[in-house]
Design brief:
There is one protein chain. This protein is an alpha/beta fold and 442 residues long. The protein folds into two domains: 14-30 and 259-440, UDP-n-acetylglucosamine1-carboxyvinyl-transferase, Chain, CATH 3.65.10.10; 34-256, UDP-n-acetylglucosamine1-carboxyvinyl-transferase, Chain (Alpha-beta prism). Helices cover 30% and strands 23% of the residues. It has twelve helices and 23 strands. The chain has a four-stranded mixed β-sheet with strand order 2-15-17-16, covered by helices on one side. The longest helix has 14 residues, at 261-274. The chain binds shikimate-3-phosphate (S3P) and phosphoenolpyruvate. Shikimate-3-phosphate binds at residues 35, 111-112, 188-190, 193, 216-217, 220, 329-330, 353. Phosphoenolpyruvate binds at residues 34, 111, 139, 190, 361, 402, 427.
Length: 442
């Protein structure tokens, strides 16, 4: 597991986080889901005809995915249907067998790009070098590279040896046989998703088995299986830790992208912190997004939560209750911010793999909340967060969008919090500062 030193950006601006002067009363929607947008883009690039994404996310992570797929030969254009958060996307797939000139892919800090795109590069004849932001080189990548290598793909690092992390080069032969493959996905569910998304295009499909400690963020693998099935791919996930993808075409599609329920989290949290009400219309029914679990999580914190006619309504109680929660996946930084404002102690477990996210999130949350006077202790697989009054100060973001939004949540209750590098929210929600201020205007 990655234990890299925490890095800070001294040049970034300090954003005065607004305090909630009164209970928030807001109705709002948020931009499209990162996880769905980037999965649909990958599938569209591999599909059997042109596809359309309606109301997709437009952010740094989706822009990086679009640029990567274009490098592999997909054509992606913006098209009418201008929604509240930007235009639709039209995708013409990569032409099977068409070589690409030696090229490069910038992964930024996007896990979906660095994990999902290399298997596609293996399916394209050509040489593709992958790199990203400085911290991206620390994010776990090994199992995906080992898996590709086991499938017969030639890979090299800049010195020509077998790579274990970014930067690396995929020497695509244009086709993959597939078959049985074992991998350890305990550091990231994205290792599994990466191989499943490309697997219908392997000559024999793929039987993938996870061997190791439990896989985190299982909801994200379920999302992958679901989008594959929606595109006509046969996937058998009936045996835990096994996924069998049959070879076959990926049907082109026209899809409405759901709003990002994980990114809805900080806004819903504002209802608890300010003892107000936040409503989100268009809450998708029967969604595969992990953020749907806000409905249960926020109730445990003491909120009243209703979902009626597609409108999610969250009303904060008189106090925020402490919680015990396991594997909250990408929701954890928002959850931790609420815990720091709770009346009782909280324990978050099953999130050791957050040490390999945009930053070491366990270390970063402990350092920043404690830096404001809080009481957070790291455990082997999570955080213990005890109530203690917080004070004004700088909350560092570590280039992590969810750290920045965690700082904004604390700022609602604690005057004088300065969030360093709020612009890093552009990774998945460039509109965050504007939407946050708008939420507080009433
Ligand atoms: O597949 C995806 O879209 C994601 C999977 C999860 O990754 P991990 O399994 O590494 O937590 C999640 O945290 C990330 O934000 C998005
Ligand atoms: C872990 C996250 O992102 P990524 O897709 O880069 O892994 C996240 O958004 O919380």
């Amino acid at each position: 597991m990655i234990q890299d030193p925490i890095t800070r950006n001294p040049a970034a601006e300090l954003w005065p986080a607004p305090t909630a002067q009164s209970p928030v009363q807001a109705t709002l929607t948020v931009p499209g889901s990162k996880s769905l947008t980037n999965r649909y883009l990958v599938l569209a690039a591999l599909s059997d005809g042109p596809s359309r994404l309606r109301a997709p996310l437009h952010s740094r992570d989706s822009a990086l995915m679009i640029a990567a797929l274009r490098r592999l030969g997909a054509q992606i254009e913006e098209a009418g249907g201008e929604g509240a958060f930007g235009p639709d996307l039209l995708v013409t797939p990569i032409e099977a067998g068409k070589p690409v000139a030696a090229t490069s892919v910038d992964c930024g800090l996007a896990g979906t790009v660095m994990r999902f795109v290399p298997p596609l590069a293996a399916l394209v004849p050509g040489t593709v070098r992958f790199d990203g932001d400085p911290h991206a080189r620390n994010r776990p990548m090994g199992p995906v590279l080992e898996a590709l290598s086991a499938l017969g793909v030639r890979l090299s690092d800049d010195g020509g040896s077998a790579p274990t992390a970014l930067p690396f080069t995929v020497h695509g032969a244009g086709s993959l046989r597939g078959g049985y493959l074992a991998l350890d996905a305990s550091a990231s569910s994205q290792f599994v998703s990466a191989l499943l998304l490309a697997a219908p295009r392997f000559a024999e499909g793929l039987h993938l088995e996870h061997i190791g400690k439990p896989v985190p963020s299982l909801e994200h693998i379920a999302m992958t299986v679901r989008v594959l099935r929606e595109a006509g791919v046969v996937v058998d996930d009936s045996v835990p830790s096994h996924w069998i993808v049959s070879p076959g075409p990926i049907r082109a599609f026209d899809v409405q992208v759901e709003q990002d329920l994980s990114n809805a989290g900080p806004f819903l949290a504002a209802a608890l912190v300010s003892h107000g009400t936040v409503r989100i219309p268009g809450w998708p029914e029967g969604t595969s997004q992990v953020g749907d679990s806000w409905r249960q999580i926020l109730q445990q914190f003491g909120a009243e939560v209703t979902l009626q006619d597609g409108v999610l309504s969250v009303t904060g109680g008189p106090q925020i209750r402490g919680v015990e929660l396991a594997d909250t996946s990408e929701l954890a930084p928002t959850v931790a911010a609420l815990c720091a404002l709770a009346e009782g102690p909280s324990r978050l477990s099953g999130i050791a793999h957050l040490r390999g996210h945009e930053t070491d999130r366990l270390a970063a949350l402990a350092a920043e909340i404690n830096g404001l006077g809080g009481d957070v202790e790291e455990t082997a697989d999570g955080l213990l967060i005890r109530p203690r009054p917080l004070r004004a100060g700088v909350f560092h973001s570590y280039a992590d969008h969810r750290m920045a939004t965690a700082g904004a949540i604390l700022g609602l209750a604690v005057p004088g919090i300065l969030v360093e590098d709020i612009a890093t929210t552009a990774k998945t929600m460039p509109e965050f500062p504007q939407l946050w201020h708008r939420m507080l205007e009433h």
